[in-house]
Amino acid sequence: MSTVRQRKPSKKAASVSSDKSSKTSSNDKAESASSWSLNEVTHCMFDRVPAHSIAMARIFWGLVMAWEIYTYTMYDFSKTYHQLVRPTFMFHYFGIWVPRLTFEQWKIFHYCMLVFAGMFSAGLLYHVAALLFALGFTFLFLQDMSFYLNHFYLVMVLCYAYTFVPANRFWSLDAALGIVKKDNTVPFWTVFLTRALVSVVYIYAGIAKMNEDWIRGEPLAHWLPRRSHVYPSFAWYFDSYYTALFMSWAGLLFDTFVPFFFFVPLPIPYARQLAFVASFLFHIMNKLIFNIGIFPYVMSTVTTIFFRSDWPRVVYRFVFTRDPAPARPASPDETRRLARTVPLSLGQKATLALLSLFLLQQTATPLRHNLYQGDVVWNEEGHLGSWRMKLRDKAGMTKYYVRFEDPYRPGEIVTDVVEPQMLLTNGQAKKMSGRPQMILLFALHLADVLAEKLNGTRPQVHVVSIGSVNYRPPQYFIDPRIDLASLPPWTWVHDFVLDLVPLGEHEGHPALATGGKDTGGDQSKNRLFKAYGHLELDDAIEQFSAAMKKFGRE
User: Fold this and answer.
1) Cβ neighbours of residue 81 closer than 8 Å, sequence gap 6 or more
2) What pTM did the predictor assign?
3) Cα(67)–Cα(73) distance, integer angstroms
4) What is the CA radius of gyration of the chain?
5) What is the DSSP code (8-state) at residue 184?
6) How far apart are CA 252 and CA 249, in angstroms?
7) In this structure, what are the phi and psi dihedrals at residue 35, rounded to the nearest 5 degrees?
8) What integer pLDDT is reported at residue 336 of this predicted model?
C-alpha cells in the first residue's frame, strides 16, 4: 500500500496567497468605501432615528424663545417702550421696509409671540406656530439695525429651519390629539440639519478669532479687569494679562475644534460627553462674565442635538433604573443596506436639494467680507451673519455738521452742529458711532428732515467721526470732506471710510486723531466724546486730507 505524501506550501507561496487575500480584502473595502460615498451618504439622510433628541430640542428651544419675548414685557413693557416706541428714527436695512407699531400694538404683538413660543414648545399646531414665530421674530429683528446681535440672527436661522422639521411627531400635543400621526422616529436629516448649522457657528467663530488683535489678547485684556469688582475674590485672576491671553487662545481653539469632537468618532472615552461639558461651561462662563443675553442658553440647548438621538431615554434609564450602560442602538442591518440601493424618490431628492442649498448659503455667507475692500472689523462690511462674536470693542465719536443757505440772508452759508444723542437713544447713538452704514443713514435722515423745513432745499451734511477698535489709538473714521447727504443709501462704505491703520504704523501716522483731551483713564465707549468732542470740521478736514494722501487714495 503506497502512501501519498502531500507537499506543504512553501513560505513564498503562502506569502503570495496572503498578498492575494489582502488585496482581495482591500478591494472589498475600497468597494465598500466607494459604495458609502456614492449611495449611503444620501440614503442615510432618510434613515429613521429615534425622535427623542429632536423633540427635546423643540421643547427647550420654545422655552428659551418664550423667555426672550418675556423680557420685552417685564417692568410694564419698559424694554418695548425704550427700544421700539420711544425712538424718533429707526435704522432700517437697505431695501427693507417694516411698519412701526404703537405701544399698545406692540403689547399685543408680544403676547401673541409668547403664545406662538408656547405652542412651538408644546408641539401644538407646530408648523404653523414655528412659521408665525419665525416671521414675528424677523419683524422684530428688522425694526432697527442697532438691534443686531449674532444670536438674534441665529434664532432666525434656526426658527425657519425648524419650520420644516417634523419635530412634532413625538412628545407633542399634535401627536397626542391625533393632528399628526405619532411616530417615535424621524429622518436623520432633521438631526443633521441642526448639527450642521451649529457647527457652522462654532467653526466660523473660531476662524474669525484668527486675527492679530485676538491673538495678542484684545479686547479681553481690557474687558476682564472691569469684572474684578463683580467677583472681588478673583480680581487677581481677571487683572492678569496672561489670563486674557489664555482665554483668547482657549476660545479660538474651542470654537474651531469642538464640532469635530461632536461629529468625528475619536479614540477617547466619552469624547462627545466631555466636549458637551466643556461647551456648557464655556457658555456659562461667558454668561457670568459678560452677560451676553440668551446666547449661552441658545447654544447649550441646540448643542444637545449632537448626542445620540435617544439620549433622553438613556438619561431616564440611568436615573431611574441605575443602568450605567444602556444598550446602544443596533447598527444598520442588511435590510437597511439593501434599501439604500433603491433610488431616492422625487420628494427625497427635492429635500436633499433644498437642504444642500440652505447649508451652502449658510456656509458661504460668512465668507463674503473677503470680497470687500478694507478690514471688516473696522468698516463692518460683511459683518452681519458672519459669526464674528465678541471680537472687538469699538468706541466712536460722531458729530454732524449741517450746511445750508440762510433763508433770511441769501448768499450766507449757515453751519449748525447736530449731536446725535439729541435725536437718537443712547443705544442707537453708541452703535451708530462705530458703523459707517448707520452714520450714512442718519445723515440722509437729517437732510430729509431739514429739506422740508427749507422749502425743498437739501442741505449738506458732513461728519467729524473718530473711532477706535480694540483700544488702538483713535483715528479718523469717516471722510469729513464728503457731503453724505449727496450719497445714495447703498453706497459702498469704502468710498467714504478711511482704512484702519495697521498695527506697528501708529507713530506719527496722519490718520491718527490729534489734539485730544485727557479723559482720566476712562475706557468707556463714550471716552472719545470727552477727548475729541471739541474738534471742529475744518480741523478734521485738514488732518483727513493728509491721511488720504498717506494711503494713496487721492
Assistant:
1) 103
2) 0.85
3) 10
4) 30
5) S
6) 5
7) -60, -40
8) 57
Q: CB neighbours of 168 closer than 8 A, spacing ≥ 6?
A: 58, 123, 126, 127, 174, 175, 180
Q: Say if CB 62 and CB 120 are below 8 A apart.
A: yes
Tell me, letter by letter, the H, E, C secondary structure of 13-41: HHHHHHHHHHHHHHHHHHHHHHHHHHHHH
Q: What is the pLDDT of residue 282?
A: 87
Residues 6+ apart with CB under 8 A from 78: none
Q: Is the C-alpha dihedral spanning 73, 77, 79, 81 positive or negative?
A: positive
What percent of the chain is predicted at pLDDT more than 90? 49
Q: Which three cell numbers stand for residue 387?
A: 459669526
DSSP character for 522?
A: -
What is the residue-averaged pLDDT of the chain?
A: 85
Q: How many CB atoms lie within 10 A of CB 533?
A: 15
d(CA 329, CA 48): 12
The whole-angstrom distance between residue 302's C-alpha and the CA centroid of its chain comes to 14
DSSP code for 77: H
In this structure, what are the phi and psi dihedrals at residue 533, rounded to the nearest 5 degrees?
Answer: -65, -15
Average pLDDT over residues 140-157: 92
**Closest by Cα among 448, 515, 438, 441 to 476:** 515
- For residues 18 and 278, give the distance between their C-alpha atoms in angstroms, rounded to a whole number: 47
- Cβ neighbours, 10 Å, residue 515: 10
- Grid coordinates representing 27 are 478591494
